[in-house]
Every structure is written in C-alpha cells, then in structure tokens.
Amino acid sequence: MTIFEEMTALAVRHGAINLGQGFPDEDGPAEMAEAARSAILAGANQYAPGQGIPRLREAVAAHQARFYGIALDPWREVIVTTGATEGIAAAFLALAGPGDEVLTFEPFYDSYGAMIALAGAEHVTVPLGAPSFQPDLAELEAAFGPRTRVVVVNNPHNPTGAVFGREMLSRIVELAAEHDAVIVTDEVYEHLVFGPRHVPVASLPGAAERTLTISSAGKTFSFTGWKVGWVTGPEELVARVRTIKQFLTYSSGTPFQEAVALGLGYPDGFFEGIAAALRAKRDILAEGLEAAGLDVFRPEGTYFITADTAGLGFDSAVDLARRLPELVGVAAIPVSVFCHPEGAERTRSLLRFAFCKKEPLLDEAATRLSRLAELV
Ligand SMILES: Cc1ncc(COP(=O)(O)O)c(C=O)c1O
After folding, report:
1. Given the CA of residue 228, which atom of ligand 1 is nearest to it?
2. pLDDT over 80 (residue 315)
C-alpha cells in the first residue's frame, strides 16, 4: 500500500476531510464536459492520430503563443500524451539510459524517481529547503557533471508550491547548455500561480532548442481523470518522445482531446479566474494551519500548502499524518514521501495539504485543524 492509499483509508475510517489527494472536488467547465459528450456521440471514438488530433495540437501551439510568445509548429513540435505522466515517462525513456544522470530537485513528484529508475539512469537530486524551497546555487552547480543528460524542472513545484523566478530558471538553462543536457520541464501548474505570470523555461534565451515542455489539462481545467497532456519542443526531441509513446499508449482519448482543444481557447479571463479562486482557497487553509500552530509556507503556485509540524512535538510528519485523521478529522501527506532517504530526513517534519476543494469544506478543515494545538 502506498502512503497515499494508506491516508485515504485512514480518512475513510475516521470520516476525515482528505487533503492528501491532489485532485479537485469540483469538475471543470460544463461546456467542456458537453464537448466531450458531443464528440462521443458524433463518433470520435476510434484511435486518434498518435501525435494527437490536429485541432488540439493547433490549440496547444496557439496557447503557447498567446500566453508566452512561444512559436511552435503544431505538426512537428507538439505531441499529445496520456496526461503529463505519459509525457514524463516518454521523455525520460527517450533521453536517458544506463550511465546517464538525470537531475531533479528534491522533494520531487514521485513519477520522476520511478521513471528514471525504469530508464536505468541515475537519479541526482538538488535539495529544496524550507522556507523558500529555492535551490542553493552552489549545490545546483555541483550537481551537474559530465554524465548529466537531463535536468528536470517542475515549476510551479509539487509538493512545495514554490515558483522558481526568471533568474533561477536562466541559471538552470546556462548550466544545461554548458553540460549539453536536455531540460525537461513539467509545467502542469502553469495557470495555478498567485504572483506574477508563469515564466516557461522554453521562453528564456538559449532554452528553446534544448527544452521539452510538458503540461496537461488535468490541473488547469479540473479534469484530472481525462488524462490529456502534451509535450512541446524542438522537432528532433518531440520525435524521440513520439517513438516511445508509440509503444506506451500509441494514442490518447479522442473525445477528450476535442474538449481540451475548446478549453485551451478560452479567453484570458478564464485562466485568471482559476488562479484567483485558488488563491482564496489557499488563504483559508493557510489560516487554519497557522491557527493549529504550524509553520506555514504559503505557496506561490500549485494547489498544495506545505507546513512544518516540528513545533507540535511529533517525532515525524509521517507519525502525525497517521494520527491526524483520528485526532482532528483531516488527512494530509508527509513531504518525505517525495524524497530519497537522505531528503526524507531533511523534510521529516513537513506535511503537504491540498486546497483544491470547495470553500465550505476548506473552512471546515481549517476549523478542525485549528483545534490541533490544544490536542497535542
Ligand atoms: C508535477 C506533476 N506532474 C505531473 C502530474 C500528472 O499529470 P497528469 O494527470 O496530466 O498525468 C502531476 C499530478 O499530480 C503533478 O503534480
């Protein structure tokens, strides 16, 4: 059983509000759901082209041009995947193998570690420490070496909610160029940012020719179960992803692609609205956690808050996570599960809470959490 399953089981047993799971409790736009239904009824039910339906590839290219000024050829520089997860898998399998090093920040989204291992490559990590969760430049530089094939950026970052600024991203691009490494950047939370507009790695000088950008409809549109993602970048790198995708899934859910193409064309105001609504939710949960006596790191992006439990007297956040559903009726995930053993030690007091839930539920979670200080 994974810790995610364990926490879900505990939440069910104690009737707890499950803030461990990273998916919304509300669906995205009804018009998109209707578009998927119409596509099914209109017969969009057979394999889509391996690279994705033309309408979605064009919509992805238009989205990158509209928001970031990135010009892409939808025929050669865009591929649709089965969620960002398949993009990650295909990119790592295509680019790294035995003898190669893949560099990620730590904590890291769990599929990176698994896919690097499946590719047979070595996983090198650079720690992100509280409270800023920004890498130390000297540690970042030292992590690069002659065997660095791929550097993985995840911005905004799951699980910490940190956002890397333009300067940090530019330094990563320079280091990748010096070591002739490919950058794989996972930007699934690109529209879930609470400060300045998202800066895609591929928009920075010198980056485009060595960067594969991964994103997905799941987070932006609150349709995580549709599993529609995409990878964009230079033709030669996208072709390598396509070669692997051919034998992972060959092609991805046809009617959902139609619906996501519609959503990507929504006006700017739609995307701004997503961030504004989430920001309000972040603040509700942050206040509840602060009242509980936790040190809260207010995220700049994503729908996750990280909080430090050290002050509460538990041996580790894993212990607290196991007790929390019974103690106050809320479930969360320890950040150490996103780490290798050394990183797990460094993050042993951190818990991750998801705030992609309806406001009344978050209000209730905040009230329950605020009792924690009296109970321990
Ligand atoms: C950083 C990151 N990348 C990728 C994914 C998976 O995206 P998808 O559901 O589109 O496969 C997630 C989902 O939690 C995530 O947090």
Report:
1. 10
2. no
Give the closest residue (by CA) to ligand 1 atom 16. Answer: 158
Distance CA 324, CA 45 (A): 44
How many whole angstroms separate alpha carbon 299 and alpha carbon 158?
A: 10
pLDDT of residue 372: 87
Q: Chain-centre distance of CA 302, in angstroms? A: 7
Q: Where are the alpha helices (DSSP H) in the chain?
A: 3-13, 30-41, 54-68, 83-95, 110-119, 137-143, 166-178, 217-221, 235-248, 254-264, 268-291, 317-327, 341-346, 359-370, 372-375
CB 136 within 8 A of CB 168: no
pLDDT digits (tens, 9 = 90+) for 241-296: 999 999 999 999 999 999 999 999 999 999 999 999 999 999 999 999 999 889 99
In this structure, the residue with its CA closest to atom 9 of ligand 1 is 83
Mutation pick for ligand 1 pocket among 85, 112, 337 (CB with most ligand atoms within 8 Å): 85
Q: Which residues pair with 216 in a beta bridge?
A: 229
Mean of the per-residue pLDDT values of the chain? 96
Interatomic CA distance for residues 196 and 340, integer angstroms: 32
CA 289 – CA 295 distance, rounded (Å): 8
What residue type is assigned to position 79 of the chain?
I
Atom of ligand 1 nearest to the CA of 86: 11
CA 290 / ligand 1 centre spacing (Å): 28
Q: Of all atoms in ligand 1, which is nearest to the CA of residue 218?
A: 10
φ and ψ of 106, to 5 deg = -135, 130
Question: What's the CA-to-centroid distance between 23 and ligand 1, angstroms?
Answer: 10
Task: Spell out which residues line ligand 1, taking CB within 6 angstroms.
Answer: 22, 83-85, 109, 154, 158, 186, 188, 216, 218, 224, 227, 229
Domains along the chain?
3-28+269-375 (3.90.1150.10), 47-265 (3.40.640.10)
Half-sphere exposure of 116 (CA within 13 A, CB side): 24
Q: How close is the Cα of 222 to the center of ligand 1, in Å?
A: 12
Ligand 1, atom nearest to 159 Cα: 16
